Amino acid sequence: MAKTSRKRTNLSLFFAIFLMMITFMSFLILIYYETHKPLVIETKTGKIMATTVTRLGKSVHCFFGIPYAEPPVGGLRFRKAVPKKAFKETLKAFKQPNYCFQRKTTIDKSSEYVKQVLKYIPDLNHYFDVERAEDCLYLNVFVPDSGANKTVMVWIHGGAFISGQISHYDGSILAAARDVIVVTISYRLGVFGFLAANGSELPGNYGLHDQVLALHWIRDNIHAFGGNVDNVVLFGESAGAISVGYHLICPLSRDLFSRAILESGNPLVPMIMADRNINTEATLDLIRALCPHIAATQVDSRGIT
Q1: Which domain of life is it from (predicted)?
Q2: Is residue 160 domain-shared with residue 228, that is, in the same domain?
């Protein structure tokens, strides 16, 4: 009888210890989950989930491929972009977005150069696993894991308005080094971004209007990421710097940023300015080349849509 009682006591003690261990392990798992669960931000267009990386010993939350406009395809091609409609499901912003249409040889050469520059980044391949598509109006946001009310730096890439992509610019390093939020924006390039003709429904400069729409999205949503909407710095290089210069003098961009940095470019560069009549002829030549079944006499600027 005593042996049976002692055996039951030992079993009860063992069971109690087992329960304590399970409880302790569950507690550790809960702590790990709470400290490592992906950050989710709620914007006006929907909830967005980040991936987190370590840069310079600091955590940075990366939101890749946030859409700021509806895809510029079909009836929206060669038109000003329209704001992205709200989405119901949480957007898992883990993957670099498509890059805008351009000559593939140009982007391949650029990629090789950037790979040499960024070869010490552990997740380098992530920045080159991207596709080319017309559906390309996205932005990336890099947020340091510390506090709020931060300066926001908005990067416009260069490339002579015919090439470039935001996946080549890892804003997480700048975010960690200077404790700022970094936003990189994509915009339409080449024919898709700047096709124009007098007397037609092709006013041109869609790529610049894309940038304005992206700035509106940033103004409306960056506070949710911890950014100071009154301290937005717009900066860019080459064609990006030229774009920044345009926004400095454009009424459409007024109140969308507070400071600007122009690197190797300005809005007065002669080669960027194009006579509208010359643009129109170039557009007509392009149409004739791409649509040979249309007689040259049938093509004029009034018939372009």
Answers
A1: Eukaryota
A2: yes
Compute the distance between CA of residue 169 and CA of residue 159 in angstroms, rounded to an integer. 13
Side-chain half-sphere CA neighbours of 234 within 13 A: 27
Same domain for 134 and 112?
Answer: yes
Single pTM value for the model: 0.79
Q: Are residues 15 and 122 in the same domain?
A: no
Overall size of the chain counted in residues: 305
Q: Are residues 131 and 33 located together in one domain of the fold?
A: no
- Let me know whether 210 and 73 are in one domain: yes
125-153 pLDDT, tens per residue? 656 677 888 999 999 999 998 878 999 99
**Measured distance CA(120)–CA(256) in Å, rounded:** 35
Task: Indicate if 100 and 130 belong to the same structural domain.
Answer: yes
| Residue at 206 is within a domain | yes
Find, among 271, 288, 272, the residue nearest to 280 by Cα: 288
Q: 148: closest CA among 95, 222, 202, 235?
A: 222
How do strand 51-55 and strand 47-49 relate by DSSP bridges? Answer: unpaired
Closest CA to 140 of 105, 103, 170: 170
Phi and psi at 271, nearest 5°, equal -65, -20
In a domain, 282, yes or no: no
Domain coverage including residue 28:
1-37
Chain segment 261-290, per-residue pLDDT in tens: 999 988 887 766 666 666 666 666 666 666
Q: H or E segment at 105?
A: helix 104-117
Report the helix count and the strand count for the chain, using DSSP H and E.
Answer: 7, 10
Q: 139 by DSSP, 3-state: which?
A: strand
